[in-house]
Design a protein that fits this description.
With 173 residues, the chain is α+β, with helices and mostly antiparallel strands. It has three helices and eight strands; from the N terminus they run ββαβββααβββ.
Amino acid sequence: MIPMLAWRENENVYIHGAKNSGLIKFLKRGNPTCLTFTLFDGWVLARSAFHHSAHYRCAMVLGNFTVVEDNSEKSRLLDIFLEHIAPGRSRSVRSGNKRELTATEVLKITLEEASVKVSNSPVSDDKSDLSIETWAGILPYKTIVGPAITDDHSLIKEAPDYSSAYINRWYTE
């Protein structure tokens, strides 16, 4: 199990990595795979230690990866990935050249077999614990994106507005 960056287009999930990566080589052989994603949303703090829990959203995809062979298709898919991160970015950066695209594997797995689980329940204490004098409730956790930090060598000093990719999670002063 290795953390990987992934993106979705239509009914497929894609990952990318170096051709010489051990994991990529393993997945290219069509071995059965379980791809998982989890977003942690907060702690559920109960009156008893036993009933503490968490809020989260997770998905699991089961299947086999296939290789995207064509470099122009790889480039198109990598642009889609970049657009998820920073809308408009793929039009302002140099695309991968033939050497870079050839050295990069893009793998695809279909969403044919997938499941999703969401936990967002309130505190669930035993009735006998409701009289315990301690705070109980939800401790939300939020990942905030930004503010952007400009590279010292950047010719453009003002960061583009990528906030549309991060609805309700973009840094605001």
